[in-house]
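Reviewer 2 asked us to include a model.

Predict the structure of this chain.
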Amino acid sequence: MRPLRFLVPGTTGRFRCGGLQVELQTARLTAALVPTEVVTYRQRQPAHPFLGDLLRHEPAPGSALWIVSWGFDVPKLLGQLKGRPVAYHAHSSGYGFDLPPGVPVLAVSRNTLGYWGDRAPRNPLFLVPNALEPHWIDRGLERDIDVLVQARKTSAYVLETLVPALRRRGLRVYVQQGWVDDLVELFNRSRVVLYDSADYWRGRGVSEGFGLPPLEAMACRCVVFSSLNHALADFLDPGRLGHQIGCGTLESDLERISAAALDPQAWRAEPQRLASLLEACGEPELLRRWSEALELIDQHWDRLLGRDQGGSSGSGEPPLSSLPAWRLRWQQRVGRLQGWLSR
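Predicted model (structure tokens):
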């Protein structure tokens, strides 16, 4: 298989986020399959090659498969990598761009897979969910936090209305601000975790790509109350694995969250369902999915570039393409009109 190059803007400072951690984790895993390196394109770092330097010194198509992922940067990166094997590791959806014909999509959730299955139905599509790292486990710590809230992405309803109301009921509520190095310990100290990202993503016009924090919290045996937007609905089966937040009225939330903080065992995810979910989201399963996807993507690019199994080059095959939505709508309207006129 082709060696991999994961493109990220940088790995420190303002670029630190959940999406970056996923890319770095995935690069670490795929290194067990093929030679893998992380390449930056905004921030020059001594530990990583820089995109501009590589493109200047390596003529297309090159030997590597490039993995792009960074939302709003994807169209520009695909333009820079034109003529080279590339795949889109799709996290959030809704950015509004279209993919060139033939560019494979590695979707991290069924929600994102469905988005690209609608928007690019002729591109090769694969499902490679994000994976829990092995350290997301119950450490058996004293749970001295009744309710944990991560401020980033959390709705104004939770921060300004629900949190004060829970504190008035005497619950120990901790609102975590900024980056934390050991989120596992924080989850292990918490009975209930609130994750309400619907307003955050609706305001930005893009989707919750996967929703790792609720999954990580459940792995640490927290009771999770969450919104069910986008990819969260892939795995948060309400009432069985997690619970809906903002469920009709403030009083409903207060009663249910207070009860869960008082008796977490009665509100935790069903053990068998959770065990199956965590197994499906484990690193071994992710590695298997990437291995299968990369083999098929290699074959796909061999066809496009006209390479046979012996490595020789030919003319290549043209990729399939799909009609734009406006043209499909126009054709359907014309068809209806023709049917009406022929009556």
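The chain is about 40% helix and 15% strand. The longest strand covers residues 145-150. We have added this to the supplementary material.
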